[in-house]
C-alpha cells in the first residue's frame, strides 16, 4: 500500500512539475513569488521598527503579485483565482489611497506649523 502511494505521488508530482509545466505555469510561479515577497518586506519593516508595520512596498507588491496572479487565472480559466484576486486588488489599491490621503494631511499640518509665526 505504501509503495503504491509512493509511486502514485511520484507520478502526480512528475505530471505537475515536469509534464504540465509550461510558460504560463512559470509565470504563475513567478506571480506567487512576487505576491509572497510582500510578507518579507513587511517582516523586515516591522523588525526595524520593533512593532508591526505595513509599508507602502507591501501594498505595491500586493498589487503587482495580485495582477500577475489575476492574469494567470485568466490564462488558466480558473474562476477561483480570478474572483479571489479581482476583489483583493481593489482592497490593496484602496489602502494605497488611504496612505496617500494621510500623508497629504500630515504634509499640510507640517506646512501650516512652519508658516505660523512663533510667539
TrEMBL record:
Residues spanning the signal sequence: none
GO annotation (BP), single: lipid A biosynthetic process
UniProt-listed Pfam families: LAB_N
Lineage: Bacteria, Pseudomonadati, Pseudomonadota, Alphaproteobacteria, Hyphomicrobiales
InterPro entries assigned to the protein according to its UniProt record, in alphabetical order: Lipid_A_biosynth_N (IPR011499), UCP028440_lipidA_biosyn (IPR014546)
Name under which the protein is recorded: Lipid-A-disaccharide synthase N-terminal domain-containing protein
Annotated TM spans: 23-41, 53-73, 79-99
Keywords: Membrane, Transmembrane, Transmembrane helix
Limits of the Lipid A biosynthesis N-terminal domain: 27-98
Domain of life: Bacteria
Annotated Gene Ontology cellular component terms: membrane
Single GO MF annotation: lipid-A-disaccharide synthase activity
Amino acid at each position: 500500500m505504501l509503495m503504491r502511494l509512493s509511486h502514485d505521488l511520484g507520478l502526480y508530482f512528475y505530471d505537475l512539475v515536469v509534464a504540465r509545466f509550461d510558460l504560463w505555469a512559470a509565470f504563475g510561479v513567478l506571480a506567487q513569488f512576487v505576491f509572497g515577497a510582500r510578507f518579507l518586506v513587511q517582516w523586515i519593516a516591522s523588525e526595524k521598527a520593533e512593532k508591526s508595520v505595513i509599508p507602502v512596498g507591501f501594498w505595491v507588491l500586493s498589487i503587482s503579485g495580485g495582477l500577475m496572479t489575476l492574469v494567470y487565472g485568466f490564462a488558466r480559466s480558473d474562476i477561483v483565482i480570478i474572483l479571489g484576486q479581482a476583489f483583493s486588488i481593489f482592497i490593496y489599491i484602496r489602502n494605497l489611497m488611504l496612505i496617500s490621503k494621510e500623508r497629504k494631511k500630515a504634509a499640510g499640518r507640517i506646512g501650516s506649523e512652519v508658516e505660523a509665526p512663533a510667539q
